[in-house]
Amino acid sequence: MGSGSKCRKTTCLVVTLCLVIAILLVLVLLAFTVFKPHPPITTVDTVKVEDMSLGMDIFSMSVNVNVSLDVGVSVTNRNKFGLEYHNSSAQLYYRGQLIGEGPIPNGEISGEETKGINLTLTIMADRLASNTEVTKDIASGSMPLNTLVRLFGMVKVMGFIRFHVASTSSCDFALNISNRTIIGNTCISKTELSS
Ligand SMILES: *[C@@H]1O[C@H](CO)[C@@H](O)[C@H](O)[C@H]1NC(C)=O
Ligand SMILES: *[C@@H]1O[C@H](CO)[C@@H](O)[C@H](O)[C@H]1NC(C)=O
Ligand SMILES: *[C@@H]1O[C@H](CO)[C@@H](O)[C@H](O)[C@H]1NC(C)=O
Ligand SMILES: *[C@@H]1O[C@H](CO)[C@@H](O)[C@H](O)[C@H]1NC(C)=O
Ligand SMILES: *[C@@H]1O[C@H](CO)[C@@H](O)[C@H](O)[C@H]1NC(C)=O
């Protein structure tokens, strides 16, 4: 009698374990197929000049430019699950040289939503001063610029399987010095998925 109930207990345990493993396997399979996350799509919608001042450093004979740009970014989460993003930033380049940077505050986007993020990028004038092309570009009336927005995120599928996703958007535009507006803005977006 005693050994019989022990045997039934063991069978019960084995069956339960098998069931749990089967359910876990199905969930993992679903996570990597049906619910497989998509990286978010990051786009730069607007670039505006917020503030700009031009000066001349008579001692070093170099141009002194202070510019701050308002950059409007939108991030689309294509997943059914929420997306948490962290450690993301936007950078500003002038002829390949990093001249400005701004962090993107950590945040969350719920499933299938688009979130707008406004950033301010300020040109670090001291970095520009060492670039010999600046004077020429300013004299010609426009400065070619590039902004790179990089977003790193994590999608938790069914609460326990984490996928790391990343997306970047790189935009080329020019700053018209005389009327302080942005001319042209062509962007390329890229996405990445890694688990
Ligand atoms: C740019 O900003 C720096 C530091 O804030 C300041 O020293 C400089 O005078 C500014 N230049 C112009 C042209 O406003
Ligand atoms: C952000 O980056 C820092 C340094 O690279 C790292 O220590 C930290 O863990 C990162 N945070 C997240 C949430 O990944
Ligand atoms: C970003 O700026 C635009 C225009 O200034 C404004 O309409 C929008 O609500 C802002 N978005 C956020 C998320 O602050
Ligand atoms: C900048 O704007 C001024 C005034 O609208 C215009 O005359 C000039 O052609 C523009 N420069 C460029 C490079 O587009
Ligand atoms: C500035 O110049 C550009 C290029 O010539 C033009 O398209 C734009 O309308 C001008 N903006 C203003 C506010 O004058």
UniProtKB/TrEMBL annotation:
Protein origin, superkingdom: Eukaryota
Gene3D superfamilies named in the record: 2.60.40.1820
Range of residues in the leader sequence: none
Alphabetical keyword list: Membrane, Transmembrane, Transmembrane helix
InterPro entries per the UniProt record, alphabetical: Lea14-like_2 (IPR055301), LEA_2 (IPR004864)
Parts of the chain that traverse the membrane: 12-35
Pfam families per UniProt: LEA_2
Entry protein name: Late embryogenesis abundant protein LEA-2 subgroup domain-containing protein
Keyword Membrane: yes
Keyword Secreted: no
Domain Late embryogenesis abundant protein LEA-2 subgroup per the UniProt entry, residue ranges: 73-170
